[in-house]
Design a protein that fits this description.
Elements: E1 3-10, E2 16-17, E3 33-40, H1 79-85, E4 94-99, H2 105-115, E5 120-124, H3 129-139, E6 146-150, H4 154-164, E7 168-172, H5 189-206, E8 210-215, H6 226-231, E9 234-240, E10 246-254, E11 262-268, E12 271-274, H7 278-282, E13 293-300, E14 303-315, E15 323-326, H8 330-344, E16 351-357, H9 369-381, E17 389-392, E18 394-395, E19 401-402, H10 407-416, E20 421-425, E21 438-442, H11 445-452
Parallel strand pairs: 4-8, 4-9, 5-6, 5-7, 7-8, 13-17, 15-16, 17-20, 20-21
Antiparallel strand pairs: 1-2, 1-3, 9-10, 10-11, 11-12, 13-14, 14-16, 18-19
Bound molecules: thymidine-5'-diphosphate and magnesium ion.
Length: 454
Amino acid sequence: MAKTTTTFYCQNCGTSFAKWQGQCTSCNDWNTIAEEITQKEAKKSWDIGNSSTKRRVAKPIKIADIQTSQEVRMKTTSKEFNRVLGGGIVPGSLTLLGGEPGIGKSTLLLQLALKLPFKTLYVSGEESAQQIKMRADRLTKDADNCLILTETNTQHIFKQIEATNPDFIVIDSIQTLHTDFVESSAGSISQIRECTSELIQFAKETSTPVLLIGHITKDGNIAGPKILEHMVDTVLQFEGDRNHVYRILRAIKNRFGSTQEIGIFEMLGNGLREVSNPSEILISKNSDQLSGNAIAVSIEGMRTLLVEIQALVSTAVYGTPQRSTTGYNAKRLNMLLAVLEKRAGFRLGAKDVFLNITGGISVDDPAIDLAVVAAILSSNEDIVIDKNICLAGEVGLSGEIRPVNKIDQRILEAEKLGFTRMLISKHNKISVKKNKIELVLVSKIEDVVSELLG
Ligand code: TYD
Ligand code: MG
């Protein structure tokens, strides 16, 4: 006999409560708690058929006795995707791909599924088969291994899985799924939790990898709770600016590899193209030299990425000067402006400052501080920074230029791309051999000013 219970869940963080309250005591959000009906039955949906025979009972064993074999990875045809996953898809793993609406999650996974060398089931609860076909026609011509299923009920999905026996399953998206064992509506916390745990059990016990697409909320978290991120093996994030063509795929959590790797894609009319030499495309090639531009040598994960920083400093029209950034932390910009004001005597307090990282990507690496400062000074003084100069350094609160990690890798990349001078911190220890590139060692903002602005 089914047992029916109701629980109150915070729709923001997933915490459960025995009774309703106005504010969630876990994430402090207001009016996010909603009642959901949960109905528990002993038999899980994917037990249909004979798959339960694959269950085994685990016994504790010594770690030394555990047999390891060479880890098997299912390689996809996308190098960037394999790289982010740490070498390929691990059998039996559950991966979650999050990203803003319209960023290209469905495109990325459909394109991947169509080209996979093994049998794939692409389950879509968001688009009709015709819509998927239209998209698929744009992406690739030959797709022999991919089956499309438009279904949202997990019990029906498991039935089809048993009938077709795929090697890899893509679910677009977890928020559209619902299971018969929970009464609440699709997309609610208890539905997401239940559907995910059914999929996890299925994946682990049949060694079939499953990839889920997850929506994200307006503040950038995966919608329907953090619990989803805890349950899955790998969490990938697809990010970028919808108005730009570049997209970055990043692993936020990875039980089978590093979270340092990123994959870079370009959105074209016929799908996503992999970008293997990102530095070359992010720097504008036009020959006019303009003030307010500086090139930073940043590192995202394991990859060097040369990015162009653009600053515009102008006299404020209104009383309160505006500060606005794209792709860079606004608080950090305010801090750098305060440092320039206090330590280098630039009167920027009454100026509007706009900062932009070109290409629509956002960079967290503190090593781009030096280029940000250089771009601001260049715009403020209206003096052009030579196109053959690049910069890498962190700026401290007292105006000192601090050393950055992986400096050798940065120098080599800058040299490869033909830069002739590079400004770095005096305190950076360099172990690469004497390069063709000239290294300019700076220790304070004043050194940067005299070096660049003369
Ligand atoms: P989509 O994969 O539907 O986004 P998501 O699943 O993350 O919501 O991507 C939609 C956008 O991608 C849409 O605005 C158009 C663009 N796009 C292209 O530019 N080229 C293409 O070949 C495809 C399929 C989509
Ligand atoms: Mg989609």
